[in-house]
Structure formats: structure tokens, C-alpha cells
Amino acid sequence: MTTLELIASALGVLAVWLTVRQNSLCWPIGLVMVSLYAWFFFEARLYSQVLLNGVFAAMQLYGWWQWTRGSSGEGGRPVVGASAMEVGAGLLAAALGSVALGLLMATATEAAYPWPDAALTAFSLLAQLWMALKRWQCWVLWIVVDTLYVAFFVYQEYWLTAGLYGLFTVLAVMGLREWRQSRLAAQ
């Protein structure tokens, strides 16, 4: 465990908790967290994770913009459901992205675990996009992805990060419950 991992983990917990609460401060705090994790994963030679956190940095800015320019009475974007077409297209794009990124990482880099790293990266990007758009289904995908991340990081003996993703899984369950309630209350 490094100081970098400890700080990034603490900020990650705070950012996800604020996301569950639909507090737009989750985005700037998340921006700092993903920047620190990009550095951490670069040192670990998990290059798909570096790319993921680089894209997450852009997604943090996009999410912050989406959440603060929305049309609900509170000035933010309301929680909505993704259509079946949106879910299917998103899952297909993430699966294809997994294959493409895995192939790139396996052939063009010395990545430690190119295939699982790529798959988790691609599906995380989809979950992050749905979160920025306030689709309640983002939490279902986060529950699956975060659970798989726990196993991935335990295997590598990144105990603090595995614990963080375990906590993210719990927060994702809370987020699913709270966002669905928020959606039902707005109807």
C-alpha cells in the first residue's frame, strides 16, 4: 500500500458516496481521484487502467457539466431509465471495445493482464457514461464490474484497492436503491 493508493482510495469513497447522494461535488473530487489512480496504475503497468482513468478524467468533466445544466427543479439532471435499445447497444459496444482494447494491449504493450484489464475498462466506461447521463442502470453495471474488480485486485494483492472496490460495490447497491427511489418520486 502506497500513500498514493491511500489518498486515491479515500477520495474514491467520498466521490462515490457523493454520487449516490446526487451531489455534483462528486465530479471534481472524482477528477482528482482518477488522476491519482492513473498515476498508480501506470506504476503497476496496468495500461488499460491508465487509459480508463484518463477517459474517466474527461468523463468527470462531462458528468459535472451534465449534472449542473439539467432541467429538474433542483437545477440538476433527473434520474431516468435507459431504453432497452440503449442498454443493448451499450453492452455490445463495451463487448467490442473489450476485444479491441485487449488485442491492442496484448500485442502492443507489456501490460500485466491485458484481457481482463481491457474488459473491465470497457464496461467501466459504459457505466460511467450512464452515470453521467443519470441512467439508474449504471448502478447495476457498477455492481457487476466492481465485484469483478475486487477479484482482479485481490489476485494482484492490491489489498487496499480491492477493499475500495468492495466498498464501491456496497455503495453501488445503495446508489441503485436511492436512484430508483428518486426516479419513482419524480414520476
UniProtKB/TrEMBL annotation:
Belongs to the nicotinamide ribonucleoside (NR) uptake permease (TC 4.B.1) family. It is found in: Cell membrane. Required for nicotinamide riboside transport across the inner membrane. Keywords: Cell membrane, Membrane, Transmembrane, Transmembrane helix, Transport. The chain crosses the membrane at residues 46-65, 86-106, 139-156, 162-179. The keyword Transport applies. It is a multi-pass membrane protein. It holds the Pfam family NMN_transporter. One of its GO terms (molecular function) is nicotinamide riboside transmembrane transporter activity. One of its GO terms (cellular component) is plasma membrane. This is Nicotinamide riboside transporter PnuC. Its main location: membrane. InterPro entries: NMN_transpt_PnuC.
